[in-house]
Amino acid sequence: MLAGEYFFNGDVACAEGAIAAGCRVFAGYPITPQSEIAERMAHRLPRLGAYFLQMEDELASIAAALGAAWGGVKAMTATSGPGFSLMMENIGLAVMTETPCVIVDVQRGGPSTGLPTATSQGDMMQARWGSHGVQEIIAYAPSSPQEMFDFTIKAFNMAEQFRTPVMIMTDEVVGHMMERVVIDPEKIQITPRRKPTVPYEEFVPYRAGEDLVPEMACAGEGYRVHVTGLTHDEYGYPDMSLEAQAALVTRLADKIRKNSDQIIEYEEHFIEDAEIVIVSYGISARASWRSLALAREKGIRVGMLKLNTVWPFPQERIAALAGTVKGFVVPELNLGQIVLEVERSSAGKAIVKLVPHAGGGIHQPEQVLDAIEEVHQWRG
Question: Which of 35, 160, 220, 351 has CA 20 to 30 A from 67's CA?
Fold first, then answer.
């Protein structure tokens, strides 16, 4: 994509961000409100000598993306709620096999087929806990088409840096809203794949360095690699011992946990004097700006902590704020998910007020303002 200013919806911006990050295989299946990502990739990738694959379902889509990554390219898939549920098993496979890839979930109302064309943020806990076993997840939550472009690039970079699947947890409103997107190739930084530097005979596929992330040899490069979803040793071969399970799963978790300061991103607005902090993400954070302004007009000192990454969760920052503010207001398009993390992190030191919404639309400013005023008036 040439440098310049464009008028994109969020889905198209996501596709362009993936291409800018080096994505050369997209495997997906049509589902509203994600389909514009697939359509854009179908149009753009063949012109770059790359590959668009429409698979028979979402299970095959993520499997193809994982296979493409092991074939040596950067790969992505995209879906919405029902398809996201189908991908869970292979998301766990990606974690266990340390396969870098990007998974986009353009959330819509549920459960089941729910509201195919209307918004929601009901998959946030599924992103973290949907697949079985012990795992750590990286997930971004863009709130604009510009962030869809920028965060998609970041997602690919994190996937390569930590050899892990990375999620973009967006929603129908952000996916479909049309806004200016500025593209400046000179400011785009790309993280390359971590390739082995040792001779073939010395390579140990899952032996990690100090950052707990092993180098990745792909098919056709001459290295011997065994890839399995079973618990395995450093050579990639199944090992059912307690020692192997402890060593592998602990490393998979620690490579995210111990590097969380490199991953977690948030924005702070009017925090310096805030007595109440809005904690939100995606379109809900965007919709809360008017509420913040209305509250400040009434003399209530309100700030905002906008979560750009929801996983890992910025628990240390919430804990620090909990010692200085009266309370948190958490608007989200579900009946309470990320608010539970705010409650856990604040550990009873501040009021935590959820502003729930079942989806299908976004919060009205007055709904969030009412919650702000309720916390402001609380006498404890």
Answer: 35
CATH architecture of 267-377: 3-Layer(aba) Sandwich (3.40)
- Gap between the Cα atoms of 379 and 357, Å rounded: 26
pLDDT of residue 2: 80
Q: What pLDDT does 287 receive?
A: 95
Question: Residue ranges of the chain with pLDDT lower than 70?
Answer: 380
Distance CA 103, CA 61 (A): 10
Q: Which two tokens stand for residue 202?
A: 């010395």
Q: Do residues 256 and 136 touch, judged by C-beta distance below 8 A?
A: yes
Is residue 80 within 8 A of residue 31, CB to CB? The reply is yes
Residue 17, C-beta contacts closer than 8 angstroms, at least 6 positions apart: 148, 149, 150, 151, 152, 153
On whether the CB atoms of residues 128 and 164 are closer than 8 A, the answer is no
**Residue 78: what residue type?**
A
- Domain 4-187 and domain 267-377 have a common topology: yes
4-187 CATH fold: Rossmann fold (3.40.50)
- Give CA–CA dist 352/276, Å, rounded: 10
Q: What secondary structure, in 3-state letters, does 267-317 show?
A: EEECCCCCCEEEEECHHHHHHCHHHHHHHHHCCCCEEEEEECEEECCCHHH
Contacts of 33 (CB under 8 A, 6+ apart): 11, 80, 106, 108, 116, 117, 172, 175, 176
Q: What is the largest CA-CA distance in the chain?
A: 70
Strands 178-183 and 4-9: antiparallel
Domain ranges of the chain: 4-187, 267-377
Q: ω into residue 100 within 30 of 0, thus cis?
A: no
